[in-house]
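Ticket #4471: structure export looks truncated?
Reporter: QA, pipeline team
Priority: medium

Steps to reproduce: submit the single chain below to the structure queue and open the exported record.
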Amino acid sequence: MTWWWWLLIVGALLLAIALRDLVQRRHALLRNFPLIGHLRYLIERIGPELRQYVVADNGEEKPFSRDERRWVYATAKNENSYFGFGTDDDLTEANRVVFLHSPFPILEPVPHSAPIPCSKVLGQWRNRPGAFRPQSAVNLSGMSFGSLSGPAVQALNRGAAIDGCLHNTGEGGVADHHLRGGELVFQFGTGYFGCRDDDGKFCAESLLKTVSAAPVRAIEIKLSQGAKPGMGGFLPAAKVTSEIAEARGVPRRVDVASPAGHSAFSDVASLVAFVEEVAEITGLPVGIKSAVGRADFWTRLARHMAETGRGPDFINIDGGEGGTGAGPLVFSDHVALPFWEAFATAHHAFAEASLTDAVVFAGAGRLGLPARAAMAMAMGVDLVNVGREAMLAIGCLQAQKCHTGHCPTGVATQSRWLQRGLDPTDKGVRLANYVSGLRRELLRLSFACGMKHPALLGPDAVAIRCADGGYRSAHEHYGINPAVTHSEQRVKSIEEALSSA
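Actual output as written to the record:
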């Protein structure tokens, strides 16, 4: 076929597209500018990639800047994560965090494995039979199978096994992919996946079956999450594969809905009673995960726990900037407090009730970076949970296509073709490198400030720049009392943990 035949075919195709553009009524731009109007949609489609790799500077992108992603990638690959020629950040911007280093730092070298045990014993307050001290203060946030691919879940669990950190299952139940050697925190939400009956209600027998079949060390009851607090969830029938159906305890190829609230409890008293019921059934530490909205809930919860001596063993505060779940823009942007204000609100309520030593505080919401993790622990967080940063460590590119099913690296998709690019064994090693690398940076920072554990830093070791050019401590800025974070009981517990690490 001669070249002019190809030219004729291409010309005919372009003419057909132009005619279609002229007669269609859906897009005004194409109707007025046939053919060339498609350039606008092409640029819109590839715009995020252009901005990410060409336009944006090193500290500009959200939720994670290029510098932040580079640090995670280098740490996960066990490469040099240093940055040369000084900072390119604006050190005078408002709300910038500065750690006040000591003139007399800790001189001993930071161990490569960087052991940072949890500053408290999980379940000690209520004398749970399964009480234990997590050996890593950095652990994996709840990301369920279904939202993440099977290979991604395998990689996370393999990495948790290598490093010794805890792997939160997310609310999608326990799948075979979770059973790669890592210890689990079993999370369930309003759908009670993995612990439900045929009507979708909580089922104690189903819970026991799930817990006994997997290395579950603790249970987390999810009230809400930072990405879409106050909302339920919906998984269309097309996505309910046989694997997902088995893990969640639901029929295959049937729509699965999670309501906005729990059917097992409806107020503070019934919530506490339900926590105790779950703990009695399993013997394990039981906690709650929640984003923070109304402050009076935390006040009522703390008072009820103080009065009854009953309640959750740990509280996981999820900041409004959390994002392992997709949700409506208005919920992502405008519902739930950011982590610092959220944690301060909940922590203050428990401090008022003299319960901060009884409860283990966990935190999530972009805390997988050294400065944010260290500040969280300085403010009283005992356990740091990392979600999206762990996704970055196993290959996520921040393409922000999690909700489309077209994740290009196979992390957040059920596409078999896209999943094949993710090797769970290789990525598991990278995950372990990242978690231990984050702990190593936390210890370096702690040693520079003269402390052997980041939980000993305290809110007065953190300075926050104000708009007027001055600085305020985290104590002054958020109302976190150093006498509470450095209580005699907490300091003694940390010293015991360090002596046995």
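Status: closed, not a bug. The export was complete when the record was re-opened. Leaving a note from the reviewer for reference: The longest helix spans residues 424-448.
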